Amino acid sequence: MKKQNVLIIGAGVAGMEASQLLTEAGHKVYLVEKESLIGGQTIKFEEVYPNMECSTCMVSPKQQEILQNENIELLLLSEVKEVNGTAGEFKVKVKKKASYVSLANCIGCGACYEPCPVSLDNNFEEGLSKMKAIAVPCAGALPNVPAIDAENCLHLNGKKKECQACKEACMFDAIDFSEKDETLDLEVSAIIVATGFDMLDLKKLSQYGYNQKDNVYTALEFERLYAENGPTEGKLILRDGETPKTIGIIHCAGREEQGYCSAVCCMYSTKFSHFLKHKVPEAKIKEFHSDLCIPGKSHQKFYQEALKKEIEFIRCRNIQDISVEKKNGSLQVNYQNGNIEKNTFKANMIIVAPAMLPGKDTKNLAETLGLSLDEKGFFATKSNELSPIATDVEGIFVAGCAEGPKDIPDSIAQAEAAVGKVVNLSQGKINE
Ligand SMILES: Cc1cc2nc3c(=O)[nH]c(=O)nc-3n(C[C@H](O)[C@H](O)[C@H](O)COP(=O)(O)OP(=O)(O)OC[C@H]3O[C@@H](n4cnc5c(N)ncnc54)[C@H](O)[C@@H]3O)c2cc1C
Question: What would the 3-class secondary structure string for the chain be?
Fold first, then answer.
């Protein structure tokens, strides 16, 4: 078998799995990631269902392997801009943004963060904390090397050219303001798209009263609030300084508008109840849902264990009947229990699980790659039943949440299947 070059777009769990397997099969991988760190959404979680496994412990060996594997060329801060050719001989242009920090010189000591005078919302932390224009977004991020946000750096955007605070603080000569963006030309025989998902902006659904001021949290905000490497170092401190005592968890926000089930929110909402009961055993928790999606051989047990902890699951007639309001200074969930009873629940914390959406760049990337999208805006595959990872372009495959919402094991399974297809292709077999 001839050694092939393969392009993988997105370094979440799906992209990392595919990269590692392809190198084990003797191929070379270009792994293109638009952020300055790898691991995707999974590195935001403290633990993962159904076994409450430590997410960082599970993912960091994979991240380390990616960073150390000499057959993986990791291109951070990079995006695919042009693709020409056909299976076996794609020609790809990748734009790689300058990070202004040398991967070779930086030891990740963090001495450059503190003197930086710029303070920005930390998007990785869902805006729950601030970060400097030079920093890694959370402790334990890999690679543990910061990048400079060129738009906000006073030296690079020209607002205060003389500012070189980070450079002066660095004892290892790792800051290089002269670094330039690059365009790389790659030749690859196959492409795997593993660009993951984004979340629906809860501000678009007025029924939940989400304003980032009260104690209404999105699912990802809660993941970061709970995480030991998050903004409160895992201490459950609400926006008003209180501890959560009465908690309403609302499933499926935006499901009706999007027209599909996000597949994982019933399970991760149940995970949240387990988390909360672990930290605040006396907490009173109600989960509001319409359909409860607990599939798979190990998931029922996870749900049954939640029931044993006296977590109340309330089946509502319709997800749109659930709303949140602030009454006399406290939060309240309004809901219709079953078909008849209108009810309310006073809570000092509300967590809402918004729909998982196609990644923001999906449409542009699909145009660049010549791929179609399905009716929900995810990358389309030839046939969901018999060919769930082959796209309509021979030699291009899709894996993980780029194809639609799914959990980590299913994302990994698709990545492994995509690798099988690429290996077949390298042996002259067609994309079927
Ligand atoms: C709140 C929440 C909790 C969850 N909890 C669990 C759980 O406990 N257990 C479980 O099994 N599943 C859970 N999931 C599901 C899990 O997050 C996904 O299954 C998993 O993240 C999918 O991995 P992925 O690699 O497909 O995508 P992602 O994790 O989204 O990674 C995609 C990567 O691609 C990069 N990228 C995107 N666009 C581009 C581009 N144009 N160019 C280059 N790079 C790009 C991104 O920066 C990212 O690094 C949860 C989901 C949510 C929302």
Answer: CCCCEEEEECCCHHHHHHHHHHHHCCCEEEEECCCCCCCHHHHHCCEECCCCEEHHHHHHHHHHHHHHCCCEEEECCEEEEEEEEECCEEEEEEEECCCCECCCCCCCCCCCCCCCCCCEECCCCCCCCEECCEECCCCCCCCCCCEECCCCCCCCCCCCCCCCHHHHHCCCCCECCCCCCEEEEEEECEEEECCCEEECCHHHCHHHCCCCCCCEEEHHHHHHHHCCCCCCCCCCCCCCCCCCCEEEEEEEECHHHHCCCCCCHHHHHHHHHHHHHHHCCCCEEEEEECCCCCCCCCHHHHHHHHHHCCCEEEEECCHHHCEEEEECCEEEEEEEEECCEEEEEEECEEEEEECEEECCCHHHHHHHHCCCECCCCCECCCECCCECCECCCCCEEECHHHCCCCCHHHHHHHHHHHHHHHHHHHCCCCCC
